[in-house]
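A reminder before we start the practical. When you read a complex entry, don't treat the lines as separate problems. The point of joint prediction is that each chain is placed relative to the others, so the output describes one connected object in space. Small molecules and nucleic acid strands, if listed, are placed in the same frame. In the example below there are two entries. Take a minute to note the order of the lines before looking further.
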Amino acid sequence: MKIHIPTPLRQYAGKKDTIEVQAGSVGDALFALTTIYPDLRRHLYTDEGKLRAFVNVYLNDEDIRYLLKESTPVNENDSLSIVPSIAGGSCACCCACRMNA
Amino acid sequence: MLKIDQTCYRQLRRHGEETYPHECCGVLLGRVEDDDQRLVMAVARAGNTRTDSPQNRYNIDPRELIAIQRQARERGLEIVGFYHSHPDHPARWSPTDLAEAHWLGCSYVITSIEEGQARDTNSFILRGGEEAEKHFQDEPVEVASQIAETNTPA
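Here is the predicted structure of the whole assembly.
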């Protein structure tokens, strides 16, 4: 199966945007990925071994949080997308921002 | 340095005017040169899922980003950054912007929209080797008349 690597993590994955692994579950696929590219591990997982909250993992078009998480079964035709969150916004309180400006 | 096609520059600013008084958001597509210069050749609008507080918050649905990324790949482009607007607020990153930024090495472009009119557009690149070290660095913006896309897949 394929794992799509987001731009900021490609430098830790041999500069590749897609990695092929063999796995039976999402967890196995991510384990295979971080075994091949160990530097990826700290970017994907906390020190406690949990996926970081801002790291979204999609199996095809489904968020694994709404499937069986890392136990979700996969087959060779599936693809995983690792998508760090994109969010932000101006402050309601402007003190720090006006100082920054 | 962020080098952005003139049409893309206008598009992202116009997006902020259209969504005012709410924040707009979108994706910057292009490529990164060997000298760390980011070239923006296309922009993709995204929906703001923060319907609870759209006047000062934005969030892009990862599913939408996956679709944008797929389309970009077919065009030989990659994600080089993101843009959003600050309605009646400076075009500077906020503590919230930094806390919620996770795409290290990518540009975050912010446009101030004052009373419905686009004012300043600034860019900040997210630096740091990992999440704990991340910080924004001011990034000069050059608006180019045209930046040609390549047909070579990324």
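Discuss with your neighbour: Chain A has a mean pLDDT of 90. What might explain this?
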